[in-house]
C-alpha cells in the first residue's frame, strides 16, 4: 500500500494545518492510520506538538519542510501528527513513555511506535542531521532486529502500566492540619527574593496562588498572603507580563521573570486572572486591580472569537521568536522621540546591553512612574507602533476546559472590579460553548471556526465547564446554568469515575477510544488535573443542586479529596488546585444565602465581595434556590444566612454583621 500524501488540510487543529503543505505524508491519529502501518509493515512516526510551540516550528522548518527528510519519513514510516491540545489523552500516554525512556519530556515530541501503537523509541527535538541519522537507524533496526523492537516495546508498556495507578482511592478525611502542613512545605520552597518557586525556567504557580489566598483567609496567617504578593508583584512587573497590552506569557526562561517564552496561552491567563482577581478583591492592591483589568481585557480583546476564546498566540512572528515584543533604546527613540524615548527606556528597563537577543530588551516595569499621564501616552504610542510589526500567529482552536476556566475567572473578575462587562463576556462564552461543543449530551474537546471536532472531551473539560456554569448560576440566579452544570457532572460520574476505587478518576471516558493505557493523572501541573477540577465542581454542586443529587455530589467530593491526601502530604507543589479545593472543603465550604428581592442588593454585593475563595454565594427571594429554601427577608430587610456545611448562623442584615460572621467562620 503506497502512502496517499499529506492528509491534514481538513484538520480542525490549526497546528495540524500548519503542516498541511509539508512534503511529509502526514495524517491524523485514526484507526485507518494504524491499519495502514500494519498493512505496510512499517513503524509509526508520531510527532506531537502545538501551534504556539517555538521548537515545534524550528523542527518543522529544519526537517518536515525538507524533501530529503520527508522522503526518509515517507518511505519507512506511517507519519502521524497530533495536536497535544486537541488530544491530551494521546499526549499523556506518549509523554509518559518519553519521560520514562529519556528522563525528560517536551515538545515537539517524537515517538516511534509499532503498528499497534506500542512505543519503542522516544525523544523530543532533533536537528536535521541527527534526525536523518535516527530515521535511518530506526528503519534498519525495524527491518533487521524486529525481535529486539518487540521486546523493548513490551517492556516499556509493562513499565508504564505499573506506574499508571493514579490515586489509590480511599484515605483519611481532609483536615485543616493537612492543609497547614502542605502550605508550610510550599512556603519552604518559595524564592522569597525573586518570587515564585524553583529555578529557571520558572512557571506561574496559578493554582498555588489561589490556594495560598484561601489559606490566608482561613487561618489569618500573613505568610501565605505575603508569598502571593511577592510572586504576583514580581510577575506583574517582569517581562513575563505584557507591559503594553496586558496578558501573561507561558513562562520565564530565567528565574527572575525577565525574559518570557513569548507564547501566550488562554489557560495561563484564565488561571492567573482568577488569582489576581482574588488578590484584588481581598486587598484592593492597585497593582492587583490593574493586572486583573488588563488581563481580562487582553482575553476579551485579543483571544475572543465568536463569543468564545481561542487557544493561544504564537511565540514567533515571521519566524522570529519574540519579534513583536522586544525593543532597543534606538527603537524607542524612533517611535517616541528623544525625550520620551529615553524616559521610556528608563521606565521599562531597556538598555543597550539588552535582556534578550541581539541587544534587544523585553519591557519590564520595576516601579510605577510618577507621571501617570506621560506613561499612558507613551504606552499607547508604543502599542500602536507594535501593531505595525509582524504579529504572532494565532491558534484559533477553542478548547472546552480552557474556556471553562475563562468563564470562572471573568465572572470572578467582574465581582472583584465591579465590571459587569466581564460577566457578560463569561455568559456569552458559556452560551456559545454549550451550543457548539455539547453534542447529543456529550462534550467535544475542541472546535475551529464554528466547526466542532471529533475528539471526545476529557475529564477536565467536563469539570472546568461545570465549575464555570456553577459560578454563573451564583452570580445570575439563572437556573439554566445550574441545570447544564448538573448534566455535565452526572456525565462525569457515569463515565470517568473509577467504580472499583471510589475517589479515583480517569481522564478519559469509559467509552472513549481505548489507548494502550487509560490516563489517570491526579497531579496538578500548569493546569489543574481533571481529578482536582471535578472535586471542585462536585463540592460546589453539593450545595446548589437539589436532593438527592446533592448528597451524591457531597459523597463523591469527599471521596476525591480523601484519595488526594497523599498528594497534599508528599507533593504539595504538585497539588496546588487540590489544596485550593481542600481549603474550601475544610471550611464547610462556607455558604452565604442572601434573601432579597433586589438584584442590586447592597448586602448581596457585600457578600460576594467578602466571601472567601471557594465559598458559595446565592441571592434572591425565599425558596428561589436550594440555599434559600425557607430563608426569607427579616422584618422587611434583606438578610444574609452564613452556613458551614449544614450548620447556619442566625441571619444578619448589615454588611458589618456579615463581615463579623465570616470572620468567625474559621
Automatic annotation (TrEMBL):
Q: What is this protein called?
A: Spermatogenesis-associated protein 20-like TRX domain-containing protein
The chain positions of domain Spermatogenesis-associated protein 20-like TRX read: 6-160
Q: Which Pfam families match?
A: Thioredox_DsbH
Q: Which organism is it from?
A: Mycolicibacterium agri
**Which GO biological process entries does UniProt record here?**
carbohydrate metabolic process
InterPro entries associated with the record: 6-hairpin_glycosidase_sf, Ssp411, Ssp411-like_TRX, Thioredoxin-like_sf
Record-annotated membrane-spanning stretches: none
Amino acid at each position: 500500500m503506497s502512502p496517499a500524501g499529506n492528509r491534514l488540510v481538513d484538520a480542525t487543529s490549526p497546528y495540524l494545518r500548519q503542516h498541511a503543505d509539508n512534503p511529509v505524508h502526514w495524517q491524523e491519529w485514526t484507526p485507518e492510520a494504524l491499519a495502514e502501518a500494519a498493512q505496510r509493515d512499517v513503524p509509526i512516526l508520531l510527532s506531537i506538538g502545538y501551534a504556539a510551540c517555538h521548537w515545534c516550528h524550528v523542527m518543522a522548518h529544519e526537517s518536515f519542510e525538507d524533501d530529503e527528510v520527508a522522503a526518509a519519513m515517507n518511505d519507512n514510516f506511517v507519519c502521524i501528527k497530533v495536536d497535544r491540545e486537541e488530544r491530551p489523552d494521546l499526549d499523556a500516554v506518549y509523554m509518559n513513555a518519553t519521560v520514562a525512556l529519556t528522563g525528560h519530556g517536551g515538545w515537539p515530541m517524537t515517538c516511534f511506535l509499532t503498528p499497534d501503537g506500542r512505543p519503542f523509541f522516544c525523544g523530543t527535538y532533533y536537528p536535521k542531521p541527527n534526525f536523518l541519522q535516527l530515521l535511518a537507524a530506526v528503519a534498519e533496526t525495524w527491518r533487521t532486529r524486529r525481535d529486539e523492537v518487540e521486546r523493548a516495546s513490551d517492556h516499556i508498556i509493562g513499565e508504564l502500566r505499573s506506574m499508571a495507578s493514579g490515586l489509590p482511592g480511599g484515605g483519611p478525611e481532609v483536615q485543616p492540619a493537612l492543609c497547614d502542613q502542605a502550605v508550610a512545605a510550599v512556603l519552604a520552597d518559595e524564592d522569597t527574593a525573586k518570587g515564585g518557586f524553583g529555578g529557571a525556567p520558572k512557571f506561574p504557580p496559578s493554582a498555588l496562588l489561589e490556594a495560598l489566598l484561601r489559606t490566608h483567609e482561613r487561618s489569618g496567617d500573613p505568610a501565605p498572603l505575603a508569598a502571593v504578593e511577592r510572586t504576583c508583584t514580581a510577575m506583574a512587573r517582569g517581562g513575563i507580563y505584557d507591559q503594553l497590552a496586558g496578558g501573561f506569557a507561558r513562562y520565564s526562561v530565567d528565574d527572575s521573570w525577565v525574559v518570557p517564552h513569548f507564547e501566550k496561552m488562554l489557560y495561563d491567563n484564565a488561571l492567573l486572572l482568577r488569582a489576581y482577581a482574588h488578590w484584588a478583591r481581598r486587598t484592593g492592591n492597585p497593582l492587583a486591580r490593574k493586572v486583573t483589568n488588563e488581563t481580562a481585557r487582553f482575553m476579551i480583546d485579543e483571544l475572543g472569537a465568536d463569543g468564545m476564546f481561542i487557544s493561544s498566540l504564537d511565540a514567533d512572528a515571521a519566524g522570529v521568536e519574540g519579534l513583536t515584543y522586544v525593543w532597543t533604546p534606538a527603537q524607542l527613540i524612533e517611535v517616541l522621540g528623544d525625550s520620551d524615548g529615553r524616559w521610556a527606556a528608563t521606565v521599562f528597563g531597556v538598555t543597550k546591553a539588552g535582556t534578550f537577543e541581539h541587544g534587544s530588551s523585553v519591557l519590564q516595569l520595576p516601579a510605577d512612574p510618577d507621571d501617570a499621564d506621560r506613561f499612558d501616552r507613551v504606552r499607547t504610542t508604543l502599542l500602536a507602533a507594535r501593531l505595525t510589526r509582524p504579529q504572532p500567529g494565532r491558534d484559533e482552536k477553542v478548547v472546552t476546559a480552557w474556556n471553562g476556566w475563562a468563564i470562572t475567572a471573568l465572572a470572578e473578575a467582574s465581582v472583584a472590579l465591579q465590571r459587569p462587562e466581564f460577566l457578560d463576556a463569561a455568559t456569552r462564552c458559556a452560551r456559545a460553548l454549550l451550543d457548539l461543543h455539547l453534542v447529543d449530551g456529550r462534550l467535544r474537546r475542541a472546535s475551529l471556526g464554528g466547526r466542532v471536532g471529533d475528539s471526545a472531551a476529557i475529564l477536565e473539560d467536563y469539570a472546568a465547564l461545570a465549575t464555570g456554569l456553577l459560578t454563573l448560576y451564583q452570580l445570575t440566579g439563572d437556573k439554566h446554568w445550574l441545570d447544564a452544570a448538573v448534566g455535565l457532572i452526572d456525565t462525569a460520574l457515569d463515565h470517568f469515575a473509577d467504580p472499583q476505587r471510589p475517589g479515583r478518576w480517569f481522564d478519559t471516558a469509559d467509552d472513549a477510544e481505548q489507548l494502550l493505557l487509560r490516563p489517570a493523572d491526579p497531579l496538578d501541573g500548569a493546569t489543574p488535573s481533571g481529578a482536582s477540577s471535578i472535586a471542585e465542581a462536585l463540592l460546589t454542586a453539593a450545595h446548589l443542586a437539589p436532593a438527592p443529587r446533592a448528597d451524591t455530589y457531597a459523597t463523591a467530593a469527599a471521596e476525591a479529596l480523601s484519595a488526594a491526601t497523599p498528594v497534599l502530604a508528599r507533593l504539595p507543589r504538585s497539588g496546588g488546585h487540590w489544596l485550593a479545593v481542600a481549603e474550601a472543603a475544610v471550611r464547610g465550604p462556607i455558604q452565604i444565602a442572601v434573601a432579597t428581592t433586589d438584584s442590586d442588593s447592597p448586602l448581596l454585593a457585600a457578600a460576594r465581595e467578602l466571601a472567601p475563595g471557594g465559598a458559595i454565594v446565592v441571592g434572591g427571594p425565599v425558596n428561589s434556590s436550594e440555599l434559600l429554601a425557607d430563608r426569607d427577608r427579616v422584618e422587611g430587610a434583606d438578610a444574609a444566612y452564613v452556613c458551614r456545611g449544614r450548620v447556619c448562623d442566625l441571619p444578619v442584615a448589615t454588611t458589618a454583621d456579615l463581615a463579623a460572621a465570616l470572620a468567625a467562620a474559621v
